[in-house]
Amino acid sequence: xxxxxxxxxxxxxxxxxxxxxxxxxxxxxxxxxxxxxxxxxxxxxxxxxxxxxxxxxxxxxxxxxxxxxxxxxxxxxxxxxxxxxxxxxxxxxxxxxxxxxxxxxxxxxxxxxxxxxxxxxxxxxxxxxxxxxxxxxxxxxxxxxxxxxxxxxxxxxxxxxxxxxxxxxxxxxxxxxxxxxxxxxxxxxxxxxxxxxxxxxxxxxxxxxxxxxxxxxxxxxxxxxxxxxx
Length: 230
Hints:
The chain is α/β, with parallel strands linked by helices.
């Protein structure tokens, strides 16, 4: 099956060559673990390969996201100009503030958000989609399980490779549906001064079964391929 490069240095080898084409990857982690950086790296790699991408910004404004990208050494303006990247402002509807962005979600309901994001993908013929974050997007739905199945089905029909950022999955079954529907699950976490990455699931492919240290630098996320011994 065709593979898709993640944009995180060292990670593709741990995934058996990369993400599977036209699948959904759930990237979980607490605030500050690098979920947004992961999304940006994924889309940056796509732009470099001339694979258009969409970033649905539910947590922060596109202006802030552009700032984060610049700090990682990527000026997204050129990619936007070439229609290799489209940023959807999905945060203004939640905050109630006016937006100066070209692509703005104005309705708060989950169905409206999903339809708008899919339309944005169609506009640039996107091959990649990142949603930051899935947790915030699902907060717009009264039926989380139904919403997740809608999202999964829509992505499958659109034939898009997606990265879905999410808060850490809890116990007591919380997060089970997200993990079940995702083809790949990657967990980012902090352990003291270390940042650790674990591939919890990679459907239909061999993958590393160990935790690996990773760093965030100007180039984005870099994963140490050596197995971690604690």
